[in-house]
Amino acid sequence: MTAAPAAAPTFDKGLANTIAAETQMSFIDGGKGVLEYVGIDIDSLARNSTFEETVFLLWNRRLPTAIELSALEQDIRAEYDLPAEVWQMLRETPRTAHPMHMLRTLVSALGMFDKDADTNTPEANRAKSIKLLAKTPTIIANFDRHRKGKPMVKPDPTVGLAANFLWMLNGAVPTAAVAKALDVCLILHADHGLNASTFAARVTIATLSDMYSAITTAIGTLKGPLHGGANEEVMHMLNEIGTMDNIEPYIRAKLARKELVMGFGHRVYKALDPRAGYLKTFAKQIATDTGNERLYEMSTKIEDLMRAEVAAKGIYPNVDFYSATTYHSIGIDLDLFTTIFAMSRISGWTGHCMEQLDGNRLIRPGASYVGPHGVAYVPASKR
Ligand code: CMC
Known about the structure:
This protein is mainly α and 383 residues long. A three-stranded antiparallel beta sheet has the order 1-2-3. Helix 8 runs antiparallel to helix 15 and helix 9 packs antiparallel against helix 10. The radius of gyration is 22 Å and the shape is globular. The structure holds carboxymethyl coenzyme *A. The site of carboxymethyl coenzyme *A (CMC) has 20 residues, from helix 15. Carboxymethyl coenzyme *A binds next to helix 15.
């Protein structure tokens, strides 16, 4: 018996109508504005969970017992520190480097100091996922110190990932409210279906490359302003607008020129991004606590104006819009915003890599050739 011919593949620009993977990690209903991690609503996780517990949920597809959570927390804390060579590389990194270039480079470098870098067993990949998750905050915070000419600060293995990051960044113990604010942001950014950087990570690991290569690929993909780089662009926009009075002319002129307003729109959500809904309430609280009310008020005015102008097209604030106000209020420099996104999304990227390797198949779509055929080769001397 001959096999039935496969259906002819169709061209789908941007892969918007293509399902390219199965996942048990996150579910999105873009029409209704729903996001769940392993069936649990994101709002419920943001209110009740911690980042570490969310990581366990994504990696194991169930909530941990108290003992399991404590074990994962200890495993992560034991990996906060960097190999001596990577500390040295940090010291030699150009102070003017963009933090995302730095992060992509040093996360890639970590692979050179892991003897199991190329072992793709589930146990080795889980250990590498923990290392990547634990070491990234140390790299980001200490790069910021290095470029400001401040002494490096070693991680504190007695506290959770968010508090440890803020401790290293500022060289001071953060308030519980600020550490909680960052922890919630990390939960909200942890996973999001087959977004561009997650897809990139899955493509890389599906070649049976290695976890460090996959996460390096993902960081490079996240960096773009149409993806994770948007939160930095939102802050640039808020700074550029400057005053409440300038909001209306600025946004109207941008829309008239058919330019994108950063922090709005989403490939999947055509209703309010549920992460943005939660972050808005959160941004208000943290902005009020830290004296950044004006920034929050500017943001809501932009949202109202955009709602009147473009909500009919299904364009609403996305996760990046209110995370800009939140990160600024926490005291994080604007060019670090996308690295915070990466710090969180490493949980999703590594989870997807482990999921991809469980029943792996090379990801290799086709391309529709639209060039000429039968062209004669012309020697260079005759061109
Ligand atoms: N501002 C103004 N108009 C917009 C925007 C925006 N931010 N987003 C989409 N539109 C318009 C777009 O011009 C198009 O108009 P028309 O039908 O007249 O040509 C219409 O809305 C449909 O947009 P689209 O291009 O089909 O949307 P897409 O699914 O290809 O793009 C997007 C999604 C996120 C790339 C896009 O909305 C965008 O560039 N937004 C700004 C960047 C941003 O905030 N990115 C973060 C995304 S969420 C976090 C993450 O994934 O990292």
